[in-house]
Amino acid sequence: MMNQIDYIVIRTLQSAANLVVQDRHCFEIYGFDVILDSNLFPWLLEVNACPAFTPSNEEDYVLKCGLIDDTTSVLDLEGRLTGYEKRIGGYDLIWNDGPVYANSNDCGYSLGIEDGPKLNSFLGGAF
């Protein structure tokens, strides 16, 4: 199920790449709404270009503060990143029209091929 959600998010972002402003001096945060059917099959409901950041409870507060913290890490205002990172904060990275894959000894989600490449994904994983 988590692989399928990864696939939905990656393919949605790839399909809209020409609509996103390609300026390294700005960024957008998207909110993906996914629903699961009775067989735990994920369906994309919508993508929010302006998701709400007002927390509704304590767990939501922790989630959204983490998102803001991770976003400031990606901005790298202090110049600490090398450009070779496989993960920054809790973000999954997509680069050059595809996902960044985990090293063979890293954890990650298989693409359905035994001993094949694994997505370097936090989706559904523990932080």
UniProtKB/TrEMBL annotation:
It comes from the Eukaryota. Keywords: ATP-binding, Ligase, Nucleotide-binding. Belongs to the tubulin--tyrosine ligase family. This is Tubulin--tyrosine ligase-like protein 9.
